[in-house]
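Subject: for your reference before the review

Hello V.,

The reviewers asked for a structural picture of the protein, and I figured it would be easier to keep everything in one thread rather than splitting it across files. Below is the amino acid sequence we used in the manuscript, unchanged from the supplementary table.
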Amino acid sequence: MSLTGGTFIDTKFFVFSRRQASGEVGNPLALFANSSLLRAASPHFNAVLSRGGFEENHLVNMDEDYPADRPTRNDQYDYDDDSDLEEEDEDVFATTIEQDTAPPGSSQKPDDIDSILLESKPENDIHSFSFSGAQTSDTVLKTARIGRVIHVSNFAYPTYDINLSSIRGEVAFKPLRSSPKTESSSSSLAMISHNAPSCSPKSLYRLADRYDHGELKELCAQEIQRQLNEQNIIAEIFSEFSWRYPPIRDTQLDYLCNCCNSDMVYGALPALTEQIAQGSLPHCAEVLNLVMTRLMRR
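And here is what came back from the structure prediction:
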């Protein structure tokens, strides 16, 4: 989505996009939004963007590059199976932050970003802001985009992109990694172009759970359930994601019990049981106990 005259953007997000070979997550990329829309749509953003107590409340020049004093990697990312992160050896969907660094005075602008929340306001509104704790000239105020910058270190760029898009009624999902290759992605809440950004429903569910966004969380849960089939139910119910989120696990348990006589389900069991026996899937013991208990009571 490109900017149009009168558009008022006052919030910038830096979000990590790629998992390095070391396992660390890095390559921060930018997204832009309007704070009024964010605060109206989400209690999380209302809290983050409210006055006091948050670094994000300082007004700065949003056209500046990624700050040199901020970490460029996160070695504590808590979702190892996040399919929304590009792997280092894959073709990336954007250049790295080092490659994207422009000469002084020519930093990346919101016009270059395809995920923007828009709200029309007079263009001269932007000049009413000033830098927090600093004296600035009229020239700076007239040329800089003044707003807040929020650093997101524990969600992937595509996930956050769709999180922002959902506020304006657009959600597009990728197929689960475990889905057959013919599985098509799903679009919800609105008709979206074929080239629209999309994300994993599991990654977005994780974000919605963290931000206590009930409606978005339910939408993701429905999409995860929609993509279940006899080929991937074993992989999904015994995944770390399903173990982490009991509502997802319980729905998948119901699905498994309804198709437990399938040859495809039986065919997926030997590899799984071998991994469990070897101790490589410690989280599976609890799920396996639930599955066996349910099947024995049938």
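For the response letter, the relevant points are probably these. Residues 230-298 form one domain. The chain has a mean pLDDT of 79.

Happy to draft the paragraph if you're swamped.

O.
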